[in-house]
Amino acid sequence: MTDRNERIERAKELGKQWNKDVDKDTLDAAKKGAKSDYVGQWKRTPNLPKYPPAGQSWCGLQSFYDTLQKQDQKRKSKWKRLGTAIKPPQQFVVTDGTGIGNREFVTGPRGTDVAYTQYQRKCNSCGQTWVASQKDVDNSNKAKERCWKCGVVGQYKETKANIAYREIKFPVTTPGCGDTLAYVSLTGEPAKKLESVLRPGSVIEIQGWIKPNKEWKYKNTKKFLVDALLITLGSTQHGGYVKLIKR
Ligand SMILES: [Zn+2]
Predict the structure, then answer these.
(1) Cα(118)–Cα(134) distance, rounded to whole angstroms?
(2) For residues 237 and 209, is the Cβ–Cβ distance under 8 A?
(3) 127 CB contacts (<8 Å, ≥6 apart)?
(4) Distance separating alpha carbons of residues 209 and 70, to the nearest angstrom
(5) 80, 107, 144, 238 — which has fewest CB within 10 A?
(6) Which residues lie closer than 8 Å to 17 by C-beta, 6 or more apart?
(7) Tens of pLDDT along 34-68?
(8) Contact call for residues 226 and 177 (beta carbons, < 8 A)
(9) Do 48 and 174 form a contact (C-beta atoms < 8 A)?
(10) Interval between CA 120 and ligand 1 midpoint (Å)
(11) Ligand 1 centroid to 141 CA: how many Å?
């Protein structure tokens, strides 16, 4: 096939995927939405990005960015977390990722099946709980042997859990702004409800959490990690949710 034919075929394929019909039940379920069942892991917070993935203005995210910038100026350690609530709920518009050099979002979210083993530990002495990863166990990570609350070492009850869930990720902007400003990650039930429905231009409503994260950016044929803002539904106790406003 010539390059031109290949491009036309590809455009047709994208069009077919984009125009894919979604049955009414699936659409209604997405409009009803889902609450957070977020299973997060504690990670070091990356740096606050200076600019959005595409464009120069934070548009509807400006007030959240200002809050994060204030937190960042005050934080004394890289381990101190940055993040702020999206509450009251805000509307976001799914983008096709134009400007981030990555064509994978043209047809909608990237879906991944996440699976790993988690070791849930509970201190025999004070009852504090924490988790260790397979890597921590393999490397006998000393920091994870110690209860961070009362300081006893190696005195805990352990439950091995197989964690498995669906995750979807997609770029978003705010209404009235065209540029990709941040990424959204949905896990578990919210991911399942919205995965087949979302496409560039879809409008969603989220109550959740926004924080710095690392995301892939593409330039020429290379891909590298850059600092970017990530929106999640937050952990379960904060009442985070997502729902579809318009497909
Ligand atoms: Zn303890």
Answers:
(1) 7
(2) no
(3) none
(4) 16
(5) 80
(6) 107, 108
(7) 999 876 555 667 889 999 988 889 999 999 999 99
(8) no
(9) no
(10) 14
(11) 17
Q: Cite the DSSP H helix spans in 129-170.
A: 134-138
| Three-class secondary structure of residue 150 per DSSP | coil
Q: Residue count of the chain, please give it.
A: 247
- d(CA 125, ligand 1 centre) in Å: 5
Name the residue type at position 42.
Answer: W
- 36, amino acid identity: S
- Give residue-wise pLDDT tens across range 124-171: 999 999 999 999 999 999 999 999 899 999 999 999 999 899 999 999
Q: Are 128 and 122 in contact (CB under 8 A)?
A: yes
Q: Please give the ipTM for the structure prediction.
A: 0.99
| Structure-token pair, residue 28 | 């209604």
Distance (angstroms) between ligand 1 centre and the Cα of 160 equals 19
Q: Which of 213, 214, 206 is nearest to 234 (CA)?
A: 206
Best CA proximity match to 125, nearest among 145, 108, 150? 150
What CATH number does the domain located at 21-113+166-246 have? 2.40.50.140
Q: What's the gap in Å between 146 CA and the centre of ligand 1? A: 8
Determine the Cα–Cα distance for residues 109 and 186; give it in Å rounded to an integer.
10
Residue 240: which of 184, 198, 199 has the closest Cα?
Answer: 184
